[in-house]
Amino acid sequence: PCLYHAPFVSQSPLIFQRNERMFKRLISLTITGLFLFTPLPAKSDWLIDLSTGSASTDDDRYEKSTAVFDISINYQSDEWEFSLGSVNLNEFELKNSNFDGVIEVKGAYLEAGYRFETDFLDVKLSAGGAFLESEIQIRDEVLDETDKLTAFAGLDIIKSISDDWDLRLGYRYFDDVGGASIGQFAFGARYSF
């Protein structure tokens, strides 16, 4: 004797086909309703920005720095964007010298920017303050270290390539870093989370 009885085994194939069609209609109506009545996801409020580039100084005794790194975490509120970041402007080498002299510049910054959005790309104008550490070295010996709070201004061109990823081309002008001004060019990617 069979202890288990499955009532659907005794149903005719016609009833089973009708239930299957109803089930498929229910699934398709549910999916259609989700697409029609669910709002599109908004762009995330938080971003991580990673970039690299080069920097130059208005002091013509130094070569430009070719390995600049920048990382920041950004918060967006409508058109405004606020950033907390770290920048390594790397080393500026002395030109035409008989000894190996470099100035290494790195630090942290706070930035506020206004983003002008268009259909093709966005432009962000920003300003902020940076706490930069400068270290002067000659023949790998540290001669002097200075800490400086300085202001900067920035211009970014931002192109969205997906819902979560942007590409950024930017320029920052740091005023009076150890007696010289520094211009930073950067290219990077931004990820929304």
Protein architecture, described:
The protein is mainly beta and 193 residues long. 13% of the residues lie in helices and 62% in strands. The chain has one helix spanning 13-37; strands spanning 46-57, 65-77, 80-93, 101-117, 122-138, 141-160, 165-177, 180-192. Strands 1-2-3-4-5-6-7-8 form an eight-stranded antiparallel beta barrel.
Nutshell version of this structure?
With 193 residues, this protein is mainly beta. It has 1 helix and 8 strands.
Rg, rounded, reads: 29 Å
Shape: elongated
The biggest sheet amounts to: 8 strands, antiparallel, barrel
- The assigned structural class equals mainly beta
Low-confidence stretches: 1-12
Distance between the termini: 60 Å
Helix content: 10-25%
Strand content: over 45%
Mean pLDDT: 82
* Strand order in space, largest sheet: 1-2-3-4-5-6-7-8
Q: Which sequence of SSEs, written as H and E, runs from N to C?
A: HEEEEEEEE
Annotation, overall tally of beta strands: 8
- The number of helical segments is 1
Question: Which terms would index this structure?
Answer:
single chain, 193 residues, mainly beta, eight-stranded antiparallel barrel, 1 helix, 8 strands, elongated, disordered N terminus
Write the layout of secondary structure elements.
Elements: H1 13-37, E1 46-57, E2 65-77, E3 80-93, E4 101-117, E5 122-138, E6 141-160, E7 165-177, E8 180-192
Antiparallel strand pairs: 1-2, 1-8, 2-3, 3-4, 4-5, 5-6, 6-7, 7-8
